[in-house]
Amino acid sequence: MPRNKGVLRGDIYDKPPNPKMSRTLTIKKIDGKPGEVYYPLELKETPDRPMPGPGEVLVRIRAAALNHRDHFIRQHLYPAIGFGAPLLADGVGVIEALGSSSSSPPPSTLSLLGKRVLLTPFRGWAADPLGPEDDRRFAVAGGTRLYPDVGYAQDWIAVPAAEVEVCPAHLSDAEAAALPLVGLTAWRAVVTKSGLGLSFKKGEEAATTSGRGKNVLVTGIGGGVAIAALQFLVAFGCNVWVTSSSEAKIKRAVETLGAKGGVSYRDGDNDAANNNGGKPVPWDKKLAALLPRDRPLLDAVIDGAGGDVVAKTALRLLRPGGVVVSYGMTVGPRMDWLMGAVLRNVELRGTTMGSRAEFADMVAFVAERGVAPVVSRVARGLGNLEAIEDLFKEIRDGSQFGKLVIEISSGSAEDGDGDEDEDEKNKKADAKL
């Protein structure tokens, strides 16, 4: 199967004129109401790179990735946004220096020098499986006031050595940047919250459990979290079905990512109506027809849309005691809960992000199983604002399949040229097989 390399825009990496200079991509404040305003991007320059303190490491950022929250920040629909703070919660880079202290760094820190690392996409949640130890100190990295220096759309950053994980060697820079936030969110939904009994701990790989025989639905395939959830579930051995408004995205999920099948949740977009007196067949009925005859029920639903997902799954598709995991509500801020779901002992579990411990487990799982995040498109150069705006446009349009990435510095493991979309790259790769 060809690797998903995305698109590389721009002819060369745009480097700061002074190698000691550091640039930060942020937003500029303008007048406007939340939801109506769209803050412009701004590239700020500082004459000196940051200096790592005791226990810190200096990371040169190679690539960073966008998330929907960055779009919401520009709309002023995200809490406590920070003007001037670096954007983006996802980042990968190389440790170039260690912070000075009165004593020598521990061997675990010394061993990081020169290593490519993933940066923790948040602060303030260590290990509690129930949620952040202190909600007041928890925040996602990038564009917020609580941690105004933490965000990965910049050339350099100094971070505590405890806030990095060695990057899985099989990942390109673009793939690595695509992993942290969506990977962690999907991991917590799939492993911690789903009730599927899945388990994987860094350093305890022998105790890994299997999901063989488990049936799971992942809604809204095409988004980063949904794709990561599908990949993790398949790697655990689960049977996975998907929904989308796009038949093309369903096809890709089945043909390249291991989904068993999928249905369009747009009831008018299905051929089954031809055999139903011309009436559209609801997507839950279409999905029921795809499930295996010997076990035609779902064990869990991983959902980021909300809306009528409980009504569509709890009464007909989920087994008694099944679990709906909600990591978002893109349809709207409310979700219906039915008495029928109560009578079938169905559980609804909310989840968001994950802990530092879960992040370490997720990265270790990706390294062991060779999971490769899907990259939809890549813009080359932190100063290439036109190409970066194109990435934001894809988020607004919902046209991407996978993550949108900015490659910042050279030395990238991702190669490519021109402005060729990843479908064309995959076709060419297939032709060579």
TrEMBL record:
Gene3D superfamilies: Medium-chain alcohol dehydrogenases, catalytic domain, NAD(P)-binding Rossmann-like Domain. CDD domains: MDR. Residues 424-433 have a biased composition (Basic and acidic residues). GO terms for molecular function: oxidoreductase activity. SMART domains: PKS_ER. SUPFAM superfamilies: GroES-like, NAD(P)-binding Rossmann-fold domains. It comes from the Eukaryota. Residues 414-423 have a biased composition (Acidic residues). Pfam families: ADH_N, ADH_zinc_N. InterPro entries: ADH-like_C, ADH-like_N, ER, GroES-like_sf, NAD(P)-bd_dom_sf, Zinc_ADH-like. Residues 32-406 form the Enoyl reductase (ER) domain. Residues 1-21, 411-433 are annotated as: Disordered. This is Putative zinc-binding dehydrogenase protein.
